[in-house]
Amino acid sequence: MYFFKDRFMTKDEVRISPDDRGYYFGDGVYEVFRIYGGKLYEKEAHMRRLENSARELRLPLPYSLAEISDLLERLTAQSELDEATLYMQITRGEAVRSHPFPAGAESVLMAYCSEVDRPTRAMQSGISAVTQDDIRWLRCDLKTLNLLPNVLAKQKAMDHGVQEVVLHRNGTVTECSASNVMIVADGMLLTHPANHLILHGITRGVVLELARGLGLRVREEAFGLDELLGAEEVFITGTTVEVTPLVRIDGQPIGSGEPGIVTRRLQTAFEATFSA
Ligand code: PMP
């Protein structure tokens, strides 16, 4: 089941215009929600981020936030999926190709649910990553459809036979191609501050709050590649990856080369936020 423009339909019924600005310019915003036990996880936080991305891009939402929230609930219920994700995007609508905002165009919303299992194996054993320059623009806090640098980074991971890329600007670690990154160094949990250089991950926010609740020392402070590679533990956070250990970066083992104790504690605490 899809929601497209103003109604529910099957995927086959969706008709996307070649004039959609999402198609020409990547001119739109998106969100990926997790569904656990048939329920949208952290819906309000995703809605706040959506609202912020749209406002900063001066992209009019096609419905009120309450209406969008309601239609996402209906889509979730209709999908009858237990473990799933919900993808939603809003583009600046359809208009003859021309850069300025089109007069009179109406934003187009598209959303659907897909069955996606939790990444149990990766969370258990950890994954590997390589590092790369962060070549993105300076508004990485906005969740826009323009994902080419992220696509190129992820492909680099695939080419190297690893799962993620840790991005850095002149040696300062920002985040990953599709997740945030945290390290444990000298017993302290560190992650890049939530400014314009990273996406303010919903999972990042949940994990930081859990870490503080567990009495861990937490600092939202930038760290360098040396600290990353020399960390006791490294893990990534994200809607689909949850809390996944990074056990090898650029071919070097992190700490013991096994998921660390702080990571394990945070995985357990994170799981408790959605399991009964
Ligand atoms: N950073 C980037 C670049 C991402 O694409 C994502 C996931 N979409 C994240 C961080 C994690 O954000 P969230 O926890 O909201 O999924």
TrEMBL record:
<dbReference type="GO" id="GO:0047810">
    <property type="term" value="F:D-alanine-2-oxoglutarate aminotransferase activity"/>
</dbReference>
<dbReference type="InterPro" id="IPR043131">
    <property type="entry name" value="BCAT-like_N"/>
</dbReference>
<dbReference type="GO" id="GO:0046416">
    <property type="term" value="P:D-amino acid metabolic process"/>
</dbReference>
<dbReference type="GO" id="GO:0046394">
    <property type="term" value="P:carboxylic acid biosynthetic process"/>
</dbReference>
<dbReference type="InterPro" id="IPR050571">
    <property type="entry name" value="Class-IV_PLP-Dep_Aminotrnsfr"/>
</dbReference>
<keyword id="KW-0663">Pyridoxal phosphate</keyword>
<protein>
    <recommendedName>
        <fullName>D-alanine aminotransferase</fullName>
        <ecNumber>2.6.1.21</ecNumber>
    </recommendedName>
</protein>
<dbReference type="GO" id="GO:0030170">
    <property type="term" value="F:pyridoxal phosphate binding"/>
</dbReference>
<dbReference type="GO" id="GO:0005829">
    <property type="term" value="C:cytosol"/>
</dbReference>
<dbReference type="InterPro" id="IPR001544">
    <property type="entry name" value="Aminotrans_IV"/>
</dbReference>
<comment type="similarity">
    <text>Belongs to the class-IV pyridoxal-phosphate-dependent aminotransferase family.</text>
</comment>
<dbReference type="Pfam" id="PF01063">
    <property type="entry name" value="Aminotran_4"/>
</dbReference>
<dbReference type="InterPro" id="IPR036038">
    <property type="entry name" value="Aminotransferase-like"/>
</dbReference>
<dbReference type="InterPro" id="IPR043132">
    <property type="entry name" value="BCAT-like_C"/>
</dbReference>
<dbReference type="InterPro" id="IPR005784">
    <property type="entry name" value="D_amino_transT"/>
</dbReference>
<dbReference type="GO" id="GO:0008652">
    <property type="term" value="P:amino acid biosynthetic process"/>
</dbReference>
<comment type="subunit">
    <text>Homodimer.</text>
</comment>
<keyword id="KW-0032">Aminotransferase</keyword>
<keyword id="KW-0808">Transferase</keyword>
